Automatic annotation (TrEMBL):
MF terms in GO: transmembrane transporter activity
Main location: membrane
Protein name: APC amino acid permease
Recorded topology in the membrane: Multi-pass membrane protein
Keyword Cell membrane assigned: no
């Protein structure tokens, strides 16, 4: 009896998900294999706390040192949570893989909805691909850091060697993301467990293992502001925000698997909020531990190939560092596969609405795995191309980290603002902020706009040509090209793009609802008969 009731409940949730998706205009094409825990898992695994902090520690150390790592993280985490809450409210109302650009179209005024939908779709696409590139580049750098530590410092990788490792990481991720939905869903639980265990191990073990000469006083760790780049202290502190902003980012990944999630209207928004909240607290504890155990020679850390690897080497020695670093690399590798998974779903949704080049080829579901294999390889190859920026200099490849934040913040801010500015009849889902929706949205959009401008500035004042910040060049160039294509005479999107294109009609929705009602009636009768026979 209980098994049958459980099956009925699961079936009921699945039907409700399909009906909500149909009401948004789309037929069910994916298998809904992600449980609420696994939906949370994909957002949390992409955040990948410890490896992510390791990848961007070079932003915090020269822009404040310990105080920036500890207090900068705390301040930025609060704002990031507000952004996530605004997004969660939209995700609950319309849980679809298109997510951000779908909401933009639905909530914007008719005069602007097509253009804004187009801009958000491309900003989300390039931001997601940049996230894949930055995560996988961080993984490649960590692999090379392990090689350097293992060789006792005699091995110094070249850019070409690091790029070779980067290419291998991306290609293997593409292979993994072509697997079936059920396999990909089960992997998320493994990713979450490894992430949390690694964080707790470092938070506890690092202070215990660190020699006395590398332990810092509370004054140095929490209050002595170290400015190595030359900007005024206040602005340098703000620049250090890139570390938490890049780490706790891409939480829209949960949105992009909405069509593969069970009870999506509830699971997706809470996955976003919980992932940001837990990451904020654990990340603050990690940064606190690092600030007290990194020693006082911050210039040496900043000049090292991998600052966190150097901190670990000072505390754990060569063998201990290699053991921990192996898990680091594994978790970072898992982050990359989850990010490519989410990015491919966003590209699939955007191509479903014919907005991407080669949309006819991209909008295809593999008959064997029932996953969009073409969009997986499309995103992987574009991420591989972004990695070529390393041959233009260190600042060029570092721009990929900033693009993954600024590109996504453009995509995040427009639908959040459109909800209150556009001509729409927004109906909240199960997750709602109520009267706090507007003030939270104002703070969220203002913060994202401000930080996007900040990240277009170079890391040091009066930089040489090779030290310029290339974020505006790469992101701006791509966005300008997308707008040019939109307004291109005769062939541009303005002539044919109409926003999200429904691939299911109202009659199908009504039929689905009638079928569901009939199923419920049959199921009720069946359960009634069973109950009757069980009564003595």
């Amino acid at each position: 009896m209980s098994d049958q009731a459980g099956y009925s409940r699961r079936d009921e949730v699945e039907r409700a998900d399909e009906e909500l998706l149909a009401a948004l205009g789309y037929k069910q094409e994916f298998k809904r294999a992600f449980t609420p825990l696994e939906v949370f898992g994909i957002a949390f695994s992409i955040i990948g706390l410890l490896p992510s902090i390791a990848s961007v520690l070079f932003y915090a150390i020269p822009n404040g040192g310990g105080p920036a790592m500890v207090w900068g993280w705390a301040v930025a985490s609060v704002f990031i949570l507000l952004v996530g809450m605004s997004m969660a409210e939209l995700a609950s109302a319309a849980p679809t893989s298109g997510g951000l650009y779908f909401w933009t179209y639905s909530l914007s005024s008719p005069r602007w909805r097509n253009l804004l939908c187009w801009i958000v779709g491309y900003a989300n696409t390039i931001g997601s691909i940049a996230s894949v590139a930055s995560i996988d580049w961080g993984c490649a750098v960590q692999v090379m850091a392990a090689a350097t530590i293992g060789s006792g410092g005699s091995f110094q990788p070249t850019n070409a060697q690091t790029f070779g490792v980067y290419a291998c990481v991306i290609i293997t991720h593409a292979v993994i993301c072509c697997l079936g939905t059920q396999v990909l869903a089960r992997l998320q639980t493994v990713y979450v467990v490894l992430n949390v265990l690694l964080c707790l191990a470092v938070i506890i073990a690092l202070p215990i293992a660190t020699p006395a000469e590398f332990k810092n006083t509370a004054k140095f760790a929490l209050w002595d502001f170290t400015n190595l780049n030359g900007w005024p202290n206040g602005y340098a502190f703000i620049l250090s925000f890139l570390a938490p902003l890049w780490t706790i980012c891409s939480f829209d990944s949960s949105v992009h698997i909405s069509e593969e999630a069970s009870n999506a209207a509830t699971a997706v928004p809470w996955a976003i909020v919980w992932a940001i909240g837990i990451a904020g607290l654990l990340g603050w504890a990690i940064n606190m531990s690092l600030a007290f155990c990194m020693g006082t020679d911050l210039q040496a850390l900043y000049n090292s190939d991998q600052p966190m690897a150097q901190i670990f080497f000072n505390s754990f020695g060569q063998k201990g560092t290699l053991a921990i670093w192996a898990i680091f690399v594994l978790v970072q590798y898992m982050m990359g596969s989850s990010m490519l998974l989410a990015a491919s779903r966003q590209a699939f949704a955007f191509s479903r609405d014919s907005a991407l080049p080669f949309s006819n080829w991209l909008y295809r579901m593999n008959g064997y795995t029932k996953t969009p294999v073409n969009t997986v390889w499309y995103d992987a190859m574009l991420a591989l191309a972004l990695g070529l920026l390393v041959f233009a200099g260190d600042q060029a490849i570092n721009a990929v980290f900033a693009i993954s934040v600024t590109g996504l913040y453009i995509a995040y801010s427009i639908p959040i603002a459109a909800r209150f500015i556009g001509d729409n009849d927004f109906k909240p889902g199960p997750f709602t902020l109520g009267i706090f929706g507007l003030p939270v949205a104002i703070v969220s959009v203002s913060f994202m706009f401000f930080m996007s401008v900040v990240f277009f500035f170079p890391t040091t004042p009066n930089p040489a040509v090779e030290d310029m910040n290339y974020t505006i060049v790469v992101l701006g160039g791509i966005m300008i090209l997308s707008v040019i294509w939109y307004y291109f005479p005769k062939y541009g999107g303005v002539h044919w793009f109409t926003g999200p294109v429904a691939n299911i009609n109202a009659k199908s929705v009504e039929s689905s609802t009638r079928d569901s009602d009939e199923f419920d009636k049959r199921n009720l009768k069946q359960n009634s008969r069973v109950d009757t026979t069980e009564v003595p």
